[in-house]
Amino acid sequence: MTLYKKRDVFYFSQHIPVDLRSKFSKTRFAFSLKTKCEKQANELKALHKDLFSKQFFNLRKNKKEELPVKRDKTLANAHDKITGERAKDYGDAYENHERVATMWSSILGINVSVKMVYLCLLALKISRLVNTPNHTDSWIDICGYGALGAEEKDDK
């Protein structure tokens, strides 16, 4: 962190640590302290240094706590989604996806099976993961659609 002067006004500059740069859209913070007094600038520098240190510490602490979801938890979440609240909200998964298949068949002018609906929904989730590969909900949804697809008999 540095203190510098521009047009007789003091500025504060703080580089973002390399391990935290992915959290920000820049590599440093720089801003006016809105003072021409060196003593006041040094006091503000100490204050901002402390605030940045605490912020960086908290970001690192949270980074360590953001451990990947374990596979058993992911599978349990998928199970809960296809049998729990979502099932209560939308009804039986097969019946819901059968309705989707019927609508897609009408829209596309081809026969769409329930298994094809699951495959398309899996493709949708995979496509989204290309952009956001750490989006846990997409991985959970993929497990859920995979389980539902596995229940289906092979289409002719």
- The level of helicity is 55-70%
Net shape: elongated
Relative strand content = 5-15%
* Total beta strand runs: 3
SSE succession: EEEHHHHHH
Radius of gyration: 26 Å
Provide a descriptive summary of the structure in words.
- With 156 residues, the chain is mainly alpha-helical.
- It has two domains: 2-65, no CATH class; 71-151, no CATH class.
- Helices cover 62% and strands 11% of the residues.
- The chain contains six helices and three strands; from the N terminus they run βββαααααα.
- The protein has helices at 38-65, 71-83, 85-90, 93-108, 114-131, 136-151; strands at 2-6, 9-15, 28-32.
- A three-stranded antiparallel sheet has the order 1-2-3, covered by helices on one side.
- A hairpin with a 2-residue loop joins strand 1 (2-6) and strand 2 (9-15).
- Helix 4 (93-108) crosses helix 5 (114-131) and helix 5 packs antiparallel against helix 6.
- The model has no long low-confidence stretch (mean pLDDT 87).
